[in-house]
Specification:
This protein is of the alpha/beta class. The protein is globular. Helix 3 crosses helix 8. It is built from eight helices and seven strands, in the order H-E-E-H-H-E-E-E-H-E-H-H-E-H-H. The N terminus is likely disordered.
Length: 204
């Protein structure tokens, strides 16, 4: 007797009744791709079920993996600042990621972020699709290239189309901007301030 066929998508783990609560609980046992094996836990989205704005990042980072909530590390704090400057209360938004498990590689005692590949993104996408389906936001904000391409298509370029309000298959109004973590990687304070101003302008 052969070994069971490994799961290739989150689709088979979706609950029969779709609500944010049922999705959250079902996602905790997702084995739709191998990333769960090295992650501490599933990091699902968080926020209002009637949020007007849904913000989508790439994947949880080290802090998110340990705490079990999205955007709670340094990039999350920077996002909170940009939202506040743009006049958006985070409590009124829903924040999530395309991929729900932290993909990383060891570097000494640290765990360094690794970009999820197309197969991992595709396997995890059903969770995001159902989150958006439940919330039906007025505006969908893609934070970074991974989220933008997952939602807008592989040809989308954040560098060329950031800040533009465009239709997508998930929302009539979709906007892409940089991921807050890219601002943290800028080498100088001047560069970080410039990119922070642009992120705030895109959100506003």
């Amino acid at each position: 007797m052969g070994s069971p066929t490994p799961a290739v998508s989150a689709e088979q783990f979706l609950p029969d009744r779709i609500t944010l609560t049922s999705l959250y609980h079902a996602a905790q046992t997702c084995r739709g791709c191998p990333l769960y094996q090295n992650a501490t836990q599933t990091v699902f989205g968080k926020g209002r079920s009637d949020a007007r704005v849904v913000l989508v990042g790439e994947q949880p980072g080290n802090d998110e993996d340990l705490q079990g909530e999205p955007f709670v590390g340094p990039a999350g704090r920077l996002l909170d600042q940009a939202l506040a400057r743009a006049g958006i209360a985070r409590a009124d938004a829903y924040v999530t990621n395309v991929v729900k498990h932290f993909k990383w590689t060891p570097m000494g005692k640290r765990r360094l972020h690794q970009k999820p590949n197309a197969r991992e993104i595709g396997a995890c996408l059903p969770w995001l699709e159902k989150e958006i389906e439940v919330i039906q936001p007025e505006i969908l904000v893609c934070l970074g290239a991974t989220a933008a391409r997952a939602i807008m298509g592989r040809a989308f370029r954040v560098t060329q189309q950031r800040g533009q309000v465009l239709p997508s298959r998930y929302a009539e109004r979709t906007v892409a901007t940089v991921h807050p973590s890219s601002i943290l990687r800028q080498p100088t304070t001047e560069d970080r301030n410039r990119d922070m101003h642009q992120l705030t302008a895109d959100l506003r």
